[in-house]
Amino acid sequence: MALRYGLSVFEGVRVYRLAGGGVRPWLLPQHLDRLRASLSAMLLPDPGVDEIPGIVAELTARNGITDDAYCRISVSAEGPGLIGDEVKGVLSVTLRPMGRKRWLNGADGMRLGVSRWQRPSAAVLPTHAKSIAQYAGSRIALAEAKAAGYDACLLTTPEGRVAEAPTATLCAVHGGALSTPPLTDGVLPGVTRAWVLAACRDLGIEAQPRSTDVARLRAADEVFLCGTGLEFAPVRALDSVTVPDWERRPVMSRLAEKYFAEVRGETRATEVRWSSVD
User: Fold this and answer.
1) Which option is the CATH number for 103-263: 3.30.450.90, 3.20.20.480, 3.20.10.10, 3.90.400.10?
2) Residue pLDDT, tens place only, 228-242
3) For the chain, where are the alpha helices, taking DSSP H only?
4) 0.90 cut: is pTM over it?
5) Can you tell me the distance from the alpha carbon of 96 to that of 88, in angstroms, rounded to the nearest whole number?
6) What does the pLDDT read at residue 105?
7) For the range 54-59, what are the long-range contacts, defined as Cβ-Cβ under 8 Å and sequence gap of 24 or more?
8) Is the pLDDT of residue 172 over 80?
9) Which residues share a beta bridge with 17?
10) Ranges of CATH 3.20.10.10 domains, the chain
């Protein structure tokens, strides 16, 4: 059923090495909150989400994980095969090593193109669900962007507003204030997005969800992407327009510094509440 009809939801969770030794999954309760919301939205049964923290702990111990890793949690539909049949949820949890992506500490920034493809609206699919069905269009958009010489792309809404990258949240900075597209624009309610908004409050950075069109985005002082797997990536250019402060990237740099101090257990973690609404 999962392969036939795209009936599968998932979470990607970072496991980080702690400065004092050991490892821990980062923001796992928030990821599980989103997983439960995805199951509900996609009408899939809960196969035992409450057991996942113990499974993740056992996986890290049995595999001798001592450094940064990535955990993928999936719930897929299993059933006789007809689209209207009742299904049961099958849980799978995998773990593999994963360090930094190239963008965070590299000398270059991402070049993004604005895709001709749109993020599906809430009238098409539940946009707050992290469902594999959402990613088919994203994959096509990303493949076209790379073929055109870009590192990634941005999807837009049916109304022409900027939504998100295929696998990451978009953030823009104008005059020191951060904005990110609102959930009402159909973007995925990212766990890292929730952390960024909460961390900005801790740092005294003005931050709010705000709809953004391409023209306003091109006028930003700073643009970056964030997400669980990507962490943080500065954007150097949008189409052919260079982002002015991409090298210095003061807001992203402050957030990334705080993020890694928290994930390593070197400082108190920001209080993060995940929600499917802003």
Assistant:
1) 3.20.10.10
2) 999 999 999 999 999
3) 2-5, 28-41, 52-62, 102-105, 135-147, 191-203, 214-218, 250-263
4) yes
5) 27
6) 77
7) 55/93, 56/13, 56/15, 56/25, 56/28, 56/93, 56/95, 59/93, 59/95
8) yes
9) 23
10) 103-263
- Distance CA(171)–CA(207), nearest Å, equals 10
The Cα 238–Cα 259 span in angstroms is 25
CATH code for 2-99? Answer: 3.30.470.10
- 3-state SS assignment for residue 86: coil
Residue 164 has pLDDT above 80, yes or no: yes
Question: Which residue shows structure tokens 């941005």?
Answer: 154
- Is the distance from CB of 166 to CB of 141 less than 8 angstroms? yes
Other CB atoms within 10 Å distance of the CB of residue 242: 12
DSSP 3-state of 72: strand
- Quick one: which of 89, 11, 85 has its CA closest to 44? 89
CB atoms within 10 A of CB 147: 8
Amino acid making up residue 116: R
The angle, 0 to 180 degrees and rounded to 10, between the axes of the packed helices 191-203 and 250-263 is 110
Task: Give dist(CA 133, CA 157) in Å, integer.
Answer: 17
Q: Do residues 11 and 32 touch, judged by C-beta distance below 8 A?
A: yes
**pLDDT greater than 80 at residue 277:** yes
Q: Looking at this protein, which amino acid is placed at residue 251?
A: V
| CA dihedral (236, 241, 242, 246) positive or negative | negative
d(CA 214, CA 57) in angstroms, rounded, equals: 43
